[in-house]
Structures
1.
Amino acid sequence: MKRIETIMRRSELGRFYQCAGKLGIFGFDLSEDHAALKIDFAVRDTEAKETVHAVLDQVHPDSIAIFKLDNEPASESSAVTFFGAARTIETRGMR
């Protein structure tokens, strides 16, 4: 499983709801931090890339990240990938 975390402006929330419904995402955590919203949800490993690309395409969030979601501690080979508006950063070995 992967946990996807996205940061977006409040004005993008309606587009996220529509996108989530199309993707079959009906459960997510929503929190507000200053003027931005943070949304967390989980998807199967095989659906992570497709889901991230759909959210980027349809919602245009400020940032989106994919985290490995399992019961084992992160290893040097596990990766967390962050997608921002202008760049992609891959971080290895996060604990």
2.
Amino acid sequence: MGGEDKDLKKKRTRSPVFVGIGAFTLAIGTFAFWPFITNLDHYPSLVHIHGAVMGMWILLFLGQVYFAWRGQIGTHIMMGKAAVWFTIPVFVFGLAMGYHKVARIAKAGGRVDSARVHYMGSFVHFIQFGLCFFFGYMNRKSKDLHRVLMVYANASLLPPAGGRLITNYNWSAPLSLGLLPFSTMVAALVYECMKGTWRSVVLSVALFAFVMLGLFVELEGSQWQWFAGFTEMTLKWNLMPWLGDTTYGNINEDLPGV
């Protein structure tokens, strides 16, 4: 009886904050990409696959935090094992979309300098997500570190959704990026400050800065000369030869902040 009472008390003390983060991410992310979702026939299959992969990832994240909150750790672990394998399509289609963006715009005669932001972003998200997920998995027996690393692994994938709020709805950059990814990181940081350990707070602050640095590199680094040269080199490889000289959307987007 004592053991059962202890388990029930432990379940009641678990915070639903991360379930809230997952549900908020799913809701705002769906809204951000709603113009795509309602016009699927206007976009190529790669966009459909990438959207499905990212949607499934958010659902997987939401499921994991939900079962952790409910104390169903066995299900949480089972979904975590599935998530390890699911990182492969996240990586593959994330990088493919970055190259697809810059290649299709280059072939259509659009602004490659603006498209490079998305291309650089695919590498930034690859590195940030990969590092956070890897170390989160390796620290899965340390609940505080595992929790922080996985939350920020998810947050590192969210800037494109914030960007879509800007391009699809003409919302300001501070508002759009404030919703995704910053609001999720703020919620996680506040939780760690209130209920976490000293090391989870330190790690959360460090990863918050890490994601912000990624945004800077995505915007400014995409215009660095070495990356411009790298982009031109990879365009010459013609990794997507099926792309023609016509494409969809605005091929002459201004650089963010200009």
